[in-house]
Structure prediction request, 263 residues.
Amino acid sequence: MEETPLFGGWVNQAMRVGNTVRRNTGPWTPAVHALLKHLEAAGFQESPRVLGFDDKGREVLRYIEGTAALRPWPAELLQDRGLAALARMLRRYHDAVATFVPAAGAVWRAGVVPLRAGEVIRHGDFGPWNTIWREGRPVGLIDWDFAEPGPTVLDVGQLAWFGIPLSTLEGVREAGFGSPPDLRHRLDVICEGYADFRPREVLDAVAEVQRIDLQRLREWGTAGIEPWAGFLPLGEVERIEADMAWLRENRTLVGSWVSDEIC
Prediction:
């Protein structure tokens, strides 16, 4: 059967074969497959279904029809309804995964990471690029390679970082905005859609996600560990540093826009 490359991924070369997706595996694959099977049983509709492995040793997942939200973001995501839909989907995921307990010593892409009290297995790469859209709404959440234990608010912070976006003017334009949008309003949209965290908690999470990403890029990328090593020549360190500086410089302003009430 013919194989068609699926473009847009940074980590693995995914190939479409009929109504399936074939992707390379790693030590983290058993833990991720256990997670995806749990989500299927829990009724989370947007995650890929695990179908096994092919004769080349690649994982086989059910293909989700639609279009990935690559930069510039689709028109719906530049508006309230698209951003709110992503926040609601993220909340449904966290509700569904709350009862998942990984096997003892489970290996994730980040290694063996313990699941602490109050944490879940977060998606770990919840950016628009890993969402599939159809008829103006998100219908799929893909690329689970970076799933790992952690607090739910870090996924919310990642959505805010890239979805609002809380970024330099260059990042705003890459997202598809001609000029910076109403940042307070878009942060409120995420908080209202997810309905659990104060805006200031989300801003703290943005800073923490940036710190983690930068640390891993510097340590693991320099050590030659993929995919972080591959990110280095793409200027990811400089991009994250610029966004971190932007958040530090604008945090007081952003913070003055929002209340301490849980949306």
Observations:
- Residues 167 and 192 are 21 Å apart (CA to CA).
- The radius of gyration is 18 Å.
